[in-house]
Amino acid sequence: EVQLVESGGDLVQPGGSLRLSCAASGFSFSTYWMSWVRQAPGKGLEWVANIKQDGSDKYYMDSVKGRFTISRDNAKKSLYLQMTSLRAEDTAVYYCARDGGGYYLAWGQGTLVTVSS
Amino acid sequence: SHVLTQPPSVSVAPGKTARITCGRNNIGSKSVHWYQQKPGQAPVLVIYHDSDRPSGIPERFSGSNSGNTATLTISRVEAGDEADYYCQVWDSTSDVVFGGGTKLTVL
């Protein structure tokens, strides 16, 4: 069974940092692009970043460029999102998702990041 | 990125057919994917590549895409179909776009 389990969400002050993790199981993690998708409270889905199978290519939405870093450890079957200079508008549930070729067949349950003083 | 336009809400009686649209100039040239999201849950892929259904998704769910509009059709709507639905396209590796979402209400 394919499973994605996120962790690391928390309440953090504006300007603070946080690292999210996503543990994958049930599939060959190293053969898939992986993404982070977020959803602000009461809002729609928003793609945040993705990373190639070997970590050599990474892409970000404009508003997080220079602040967020996506990475992966294929040996540990884990995906990460390092978030710095956090803003109130980064408050959201962050989902880890497996890219199946332009679409997302597998999603984690999400982890909540709240940026507030 | 190019915006995908969805109606905020669609209402349908049980047993009837619901149609949820996703609009953008020349969206017919792209593969469109659809997700269902129930409150407090992660999204679930219901249609990919315009009209393909993942394993486990009922045949009542179908999709089409042509010209400037993609459409998710849910036949014989059930109470359990009540959810938010999102369309999505992959413009490029660095540009994944979701529609604003449509709340389906089953009357």
What does this 3D model show about the protein?
The complex is a heterodimer of chains A (117) and B (107). Chain A is 0% helix and 51% strand. Chain A is built from no helices and 11 strands. The model of chain A has no long low-confidence stretch (mean pLDDT 97). With 107 residues, chain B is mostly beta strands. Chain B has no helices and 9 strands. In chain B, a hairpin with a 2-residue loop joins strand 7 and strand 8. The mean pLDDT of chain B is 95. The interface between A and B is medium-sized, with 20 and 23 residues.
Largest sheet of chain A: 7 strands, mixed
Q: Indicate the overall shape of chain A.
A: globular
Give me the secondary-structure category of chain A: mainly beta
Count of strand segments of chain B = 9
Strand composition percent of chain B = over 45%
Give the overall form of chain B. globular
Q: Spell the H/E element sequence of chain B.
A: EEEEEEEEE
Q: Which parts of chain B are unreliable, with pLDDT below 50 for 5 consecutive residues or more?
A: none
Query: Number of helical segments of chain B?
Result: 0
Give a short summary of the structure.
The complex is a heterodimer of chains A (117) and B (107). Chain A has 117 residues and is mainly β.
Secondary-structure blueprint:
The complex is a heterodimer of chains A (117) and B (107).
Chain A: E1 3-7, E2 11-12, E3 18-25, E4 34-39, E5 45-51, E6 58-60, E7 68-73, E8 78-83, E9 92-99, E10 104-107, E11 111-115
Parallel strand pairs in A: 2-11
Antiparallel strand pairs in A: 1-3, 3-8, 4-5, 4-9, 5-6, 7-8, 9-10, 9-11
Chain B: E1 9-12, E2 18-23, E3 32-37, E4 44-47, E5 61-66, E6 69-74, E7 83-92, E8 95-98, E9 102-106
Parallel strand pairs in B: 1-9
Antiparallel strand pairs in B: 2-6, 3-4, 3-7, 5-6, 7-8, 7-9
Characteristic key phrases:
heterodimer, A: 117 residues, mainly beta, 7-stranded mixed β-sheet, B: 107 residues, 6-stranded mixed β-sheet, 3-stranded antiparallel β-sheet
